[in-house]
Structure formats: structure tokens, C-alpha cells
Amino acid sequence: MPIRRAVAPGSFDPITLGHIDVIERASPLFDEVIIAVLVNSSKSGMFTIEERIALIKESVAQFPNVKVDSWSGLLVDYCEQNKITAIIKGLRAISDFDYELQMSQMNFQLKGVETFFMATKPDYSFLSSSLVKEIAKYGGDVSSWVPANVLKALKSRFKS
Ligand code: PNS
After folding, report:
1. Counts for the chain of helices (H) and strands (E), in that order
2. Is the C-beta atom of 35 inside 6 A of ligand 1?
3. What is the largest CA-CA distance in the chain?
4. 160 is catalytic
5. How far apart are the C-alpha atoms of 36 and 99, rounded to whole Å?
6. Domains defined for the chain, CATH in brackets
7. Ligand 1 centroid distance, CA of 9 (Å)
8. SS3 (DSSP) at 15
9. Annotation says 129 is catalytic
């Protein structure tokens, strides 16, 4: 039987409990789930790729079949190189759907890679890394939406 390997791609700047919820629920469905931090040259992130990877590794250490990696380039090329046949995406609301549908159809057209959409928990349907960063920047409490290590990293980033 071939290994069923899936990728959960994203910017993860930083990872949130919404991401972790989707990854936790996807992990028993595949032999291996790889969280791929995609390098987006047109987006300047708050955390470096290395920092994001370290934060993700700590927050998913309890899931033995979840690995973390990074990639610069097309997601489908990453999938081809790593024998990945499925992309996992969390959908928070209908507003996510248009663009996600377009990307999933494009990725299928490019290399035949399937996308599996998972509905996020309603508790996290309003959550995004961008909002978390903005709230943390102005001293708001984001402790309900990020793991403890990310909270610590945000606090030390905005200490001044
Ligand atoms: O967390 P994000 O920023 O919403 O993730 C978007 C991401 C990184 C998954 C998407 O932009 C992507 O797949 N980028 C890789 C480049 C690529 O393959 N682009 C063509 C998509 S059809």
C-alpha cells in the first residue's frame, strides 16, 4: 500500500489554534501530514521562516505523524517531489471559499493534486494570524487563540 501523505500548506506567521485544530483532525486520516511553511516573497512576515518552523514543531510535537518543512515555489512541485497526493485546507467561512476553490482547481489542473477542505471549529472561524498579530501588537489578549509558545514569542516581539 502506498503511503498516504498529505500537506497542510500556509504562511503560519504565526501558527494559531485554528491551524492546530485542523492538523490534529487531519493527522489520523493520513499516514503522514507535512506542515509546509510556504515562503511568500511578496509578503514580509513578522517571524522568519526558521522561527515559524520552530514554533510549529513545538506546538505539534504531540502528533507523531506530523512533520514540518518549508518550501519556496509552487506547492504542486513540492507535492510532486515528496510524493504527496493531497492538500489539506481549513475553511473558516464562505469568504475563504472563492480563492481556495480557485487554487484547488488550479493545483489539480497543474499536477493532479487533490485538495481536501476541512471546516474549522466554529470557535476559530473568525481567527487569522493577521488579526492575532494586530491584537498582540496593541497589547490585546490573544491567549485563547495561540499555543503558549507563540504567545510568549508575540509578547517578547512586542515587549517595548
Ligand atoms: O496561509 P496562507 O498565506 O493563506 O497560505 C497560502 C498558500 C501559501 C497556501 C498559497 O499561497 C500557496 O499555495 N502558495 C504557494 C505558491 C503556489 O503554489 N501558488 C499557486 C497556487 S494555485
Report:
1. 6, 5
2. no
3. 54
4. no
5. 19
6. 5-157 (3.40.50.620)
7. 7
8. coil
9. yes
Q: For the whole model, what pTM was predicted?
A: 0.96
Residue 54 Cβ inside 6 Å of ligand 1? The answer reads: no
Given the residues 5, 27, 129, 133, the one annotated as active site: 129
CB of 22 closer than 6 A to ligand 1?
no
- Residue type at position 87: I
Tell me the pLDDT of the chain (160 aa) as tens digits. 778 999 999 999 999 999 999 999 999 999 999 999 999 877 789 999 999 999 999 999 999 999 999 999 999 999 999 999 999 999 999 999 999 999 999 999 999 999 999 999 999 999 999 999 999 999 999 999 999 999 999 999 998 6
Which residues make beta-bridge pairs with 91? 119
Give CA–CA dist 88/6, Å, rounded. 7
Question: Does the beta carbon of 75 lie inside 6 Å of ligand 1?
Answer: yes
Strand residue runs (E) in the chain: 5-10, 32-38, 66-71, 86-91, 114-119
Q: Is 43 a catalytic residue?
A: yes
Q: For strand 5-10 and strand 32-38, is the pairing parallel, antiparallel, or unpaired?
A: parallel
Q: Which residue of the set 41, 43, 156, 160 is catalytic?
A: 43
